[in-house]
């Protein structure tokens, strides 16, 4: 295709999406907040476009909606309608949706109502609960472009759902749209030549992050009803969740099925892309994990899934937490340091024990992950880019210039990784020498990235998240605070330790990121999803952010 | 090194091993059965070299030995001594040992006795139980040549145990020797330029198989006390176990740690080599699984291990089994067909349900596994061969001629495999349409290989086992019978379907394999190790081989 071709295909696709919105819900351009209004978090509620009922519904958690459906106070249709209306408004504020199929979602909800009416039985634990989907998840009847112009209509409609979508659909979940992602889902910002950039509702001058950036820009605007599914191969759930103060869980591979979803790096197995939930409430997140795993039994249909139920685990009343404030490569921005101090003090104040964490092998493990991403010499990405002839974003340049590695070299990288991972695990065990209980720590708490908000084009370092993709450990994010100009001034005395550190430091401009979200990462070991979720809950209660997204 | 060099290094290594045997136990050449005595199964017991007590000890199971140790009727030293003496005899019959460290094992046993004497506590569930080790497992103070002359003294002594060895050692297990393997553990016969071939005690004119061939040749000669650890990447536990009528379990990856053991294909992750137990009794095998997993907690120290306990599972009283008799590629020899008919009839006679199994994608999955093995272009193998300049066995020629694949092609093979595996799983689910219960089958029972015994150099096809390495499913072997000249005549009317089938058929010579072992494979799904073990037990009881290795 020529240059005009890729632009015209992208325009057609954009046009098709825009046509799928419902006229009645579209807000005239002039009634929307102007571009210089950065913080739009409360706009959907305050704008007057939502009815009281729509607000009540979308401010309800999964358990609350489930109860209301069960007692027939609310219909699935009512919920889907409120959900779509509020998502429609959100989209106009931050450009978060990719595929829009409100009509299908409402039809699906209606059928669920009819089913319940007729049988007096709910379809399953997700009956009538709306779930937002990242673009890479295939939905029957919809396209999946994952940011490539060449995939915008290729195929125009998928014939089957991704397995996780069909499992949830069987259990009654309702799907109304999908959300924007970066090209190949391999950039830390959700932008592409079809839909452009998805910005953060905390500060529309900053990026929503990536690759689950469409999801995470939407979440805060959708309220407490929000639960979405994203994916994470180097931080793609945790990075955008942290830039929007959402709760997310990056599970170990095998807990949630990824079968039948579209990948930007298909066939890469050296590091597994995983699916995980993102939400405004821990309640929704737990509901999702427990019901999807225990009722969905994904291992019956995905040979890579592990037959491990969602288990009830105990955590000690007195937690022992290792804190990492700086990985020694790129120093986090002041607000993140402030957040970690706050977490530390709050933990200690309530009698929990805090020790330091050493970022053993973080830099090398991050580099290894990068090598795995690029190990096919970008061949698969280039093939997809070549479908349309679209240009390559700066973030993706390494996919153009890397070599298609010989497998013999890949094996050597694998061997190195295995050794480093076991040394990392040994360091965890060795903490028993430092804790007062004599047991190893319960979790690590640390930054998600160096960025407490970041302007478009400046997200350069994923070392704080990627290390746990290399390890395949369970990790989540917990909201802490927002950037405050008065508190988060640049430390003018700081001496950067390397060029990346220097650039990151130089690019910090507190005015640019005013009001941005500040979260921390909670990390447990492989397959300890239940434990990390419990500790995320505890920590958010301890620091007072468990109701971060309640209206009160 | 020159040709003489590799031969002289091999001779030195052989000499060092031979020197490690205890003089008092060595049987003069002329007292050993002559080479034309093929079946030596009962020779150790009948030869008169073992004392009555040594026989009683070595004919005891793990539970029996554990009880005797606990009540101080037997010491760990007595057991280790009987174990070593009988292994010494076995080695003289079939050439099964690679590293011999009887003295260390006896010392270890003595220390355990002293510990028990002093503390009145057992070291752990394996206190005083001897475990045989495949050569690839590192033992502190010993070498690990895995069939390469260049590794014979490189290093001369490992400084640490493989993780599985140290875990078992901490729990009181005793190690006295390691067993022979093929070069790189990548041939289906246990031969190499250091130690030569390990033959089957059922018929010394036939191979013991590989790669856990040293283990499996030893097992039948050691009696009911025998438990060894082997490994399996394409059939390396199941093939030799079936050629010696032993029980083995090939677990899914992540159940048993492989960390810190020496690999012939280091860094290969497209298909995982797994560790598993081999034994003369299901009792020992279960003892090992339960205690190693639940007490050893390998996941604490191996980042690839899954935190999944050994679980108590229920299997239906009335089993539903799918039988595969022929994979459509290479037809099994007559005795295997006879064994499967016997299993089928026995199951049906006792009210169990039997349906047919379709070998969906078996050929392609086997070819994919082969591509993964060779995907580094044999670079790692060649490096190890070049250390000594030793020649390449015919079985290993593909490692000399394959290309070092670009990673982009490897990704495509991964994607294909993922799809085929899920289709295979779907076929399992679909059996519910054929079963009287309306549930899917409980297990597949099928051949382990086409061979009911095979002469040296003629084991050509691993399709019956490799498919489950591609799937990473749980599979085991159960002894059924032995080859009988009168029953297992060549079917002269058979029309082979392809060159491999033709060659296999042509090479069948019932006289050559008279008396050889005939086992079947029992297969359950991924992570269903507990279920496959339970069904192996049930099946062996149903067909009357649960006491196959008892003296009576």
TrEMBL record, chains A, B:
<feature type="domain" description="Amidase">
    <location>
        <begin position="79"/>
        <end position="532"/>
    </location>
</feature>
<feature type="active site" description="Charge relay system">
    <location>
        <position position="211"/>
    </location>
</feature>
<feature type="binding site">
    <location>
        <position position="211"/>
    </location>
    <ligand>
        <name>substrate</name>
    </ligand>
</feature>
<feature type="binding site">
    <location>
        <begin position="233"/>
        <end position="236"/>
    </location>
    <ligand>
        <name>substrate</name>
    </ligand>
</feature>
<dbReference type="Pfam" id="PF01425">
    <property type="entry name" value="Amidase"/>
</dbReference>
<dbReference type="GO" id="GO:0016787">
    <property type="term" value="F:hydrolase activity"/>
</dbReference>
<comment type="similarity">
    <text>Belongs to the amidase family.</text>
</comment>
<feature type="active site" description="Charge relay system">
    <location>
        <position position="134"/>
    </location>
</feature>
<keyword id="KW-0378">Hydrolase</keyword>
<protein>
    <submittedName>
        <fullName>LAMI_0B08284g1_1</fullName>
    </submittedName>
</protein>
<dbReference type="InterPro" id="IPR023631">
    <property type="entry name" value="Amidase_dom"/>
</dbReference>
<dbReference type="InterPro" id="IPR036928">
    <property type="entry name" value="AS_sf"/>
</dbReference>
<feature type="binding site">
    <location>
        <position position="185"/>
    </location>
    <ligand>
        <name>substrate</name>
    </ligand>
</feature>
<feature type="active site" description="Acyl-ester intermediate">
    <location>
        <position position="236"/>
    </location>
</feature>
